[in-house]
Amino acid sequence: MTEPSDTPIDCVLFDLDGVVYHGPRAIDGAVDGINWLHDHAIPVNYVTNNATRTPETVADHISRIGIDTSTDEVTTSAQVLAERLAERFGKGARIHLIGTTGLRTALDAASLEITDSADANPVAVAQGLDPHIDYDTIVRACEIIRSGAEWWASNPDYSLLTDTGKVPGNGAFVELMARLTDTEPVIVGKPAPHMMEFAADRLGARRPLMVGDRLNTDIEGGNAAGIDTALVLTGIHDIHDALRAEPERRPTFILPNLRSLPALITAGDRGDCPRIEAELGRAWDAIDAGTTDAEAILAEGRLPRTIAGPVDSEPGTAPVGAVSDAHEEDT
């Protein structure tokens, strides 16, 4: 999908938690960077693995932190899952649902018939996170899958972080059911490329950029879709993590925060970022050639863990690794 590097970036896709906000608070630089894109008529889209919330709810959340957002600018894994099922089976197809409001609303919008019984002979099981999932729900879904229904899941996120620690994500229940049924679902959420492709196609983008804070979802998903990726250092992963990453998880660019976006798009002064990217590129070449390893390169001290943005983070902003109490990871 990626156009030649001299083609201007004409669309930016964003992960949410750790990139745009931490819970109810905007991350330093996010409002400035995204509003600059709006001012310069560069389309944006927010791609989230969260299948529990509707696009309207997500758009309202982003708008409340100071970034005017419409529902058309949000792509959820639930939307993509429903669209893929409608393409595969046609409108009116019977789908067995495991999930909550976000996925139910998406299936309804795609004109699919939601069933809750194996007797209805559903053609597929659509699975998103259900925080109230119980034993009977799991047993019934496994029976339907074993009977021959296709199994589709919104995302593979095994856990999510809350103020009290890790709790099970959709992937935990997917893994459990996979062991019980000896099969694997089709997964549409990151790191699969489906959401990025869906969002870029909606906007007619020639050279989209995917921006995220997680190498194993955002960056891997963007790379799988064949588009440029930028690791922003306001969330989970940092430069040292990028150095250690497998090839499919390596970002094209490094951003201290979203205030750095205008310089990236206009080829302006990006401070130390180009040097870091060049150092990473040389290091990855050497690692892939087997002449060194990540720990030896880190011992040389040329790669910091993080770098300052155009304006240093303001006091009180969330540190790297901070997490929200969101219902499901906005990965």
Distinct helical segment count: 12
The major β-sheet equals: 6 strands, parallel
Number of strands: 15
Name the average pLDDT: 91
Strand order of the largest sheet: 5-4-1-13-14-15
Kindly report how far apart the N and C termini lie: 22 Å
Global morphology:
globular
Tell me the strand percentage band: 15-25%
| SS content category | alpha/beta
Give the helix level as a range of percent. 25-40%
Q: Enumerate the spans where pLDDT stays under 50 for 5 or more consecutive residues.
A: 312-328
**Cα Rg:** 20 Å
Describe this structure in words.
With 331 residues, the protein is of the alpha/beta class. Helix content is 37%, strand content 17%. The chain has helices spanning 30-39, 55-64, 77-89, 101-109, 135-146, 170-181, 194-203, 215-224, 239-244, 261-266, 273-289, 294-300, and strands at 11-14, 21-22, 25-26, 44-48, 74-76, 94-98, 113-115, 124-127, 150-153, 159-162, 165-168, 186-187, 208-212, 228-232, 253-255. The strands form 4 sheets. The protein has a 6-stranded parallel sheet, sandwiched between helices. A 5-stranded parallel sheet has the order 7-6-8-9-12, with helices on both faces. Helix 3 packs parallel to helix 4 (101-109) and helix 5 (135-146) packs across helix 6 (170-181). The two termini are 22 Å apart. Residues 312-328 have low confidence and may be disordered.
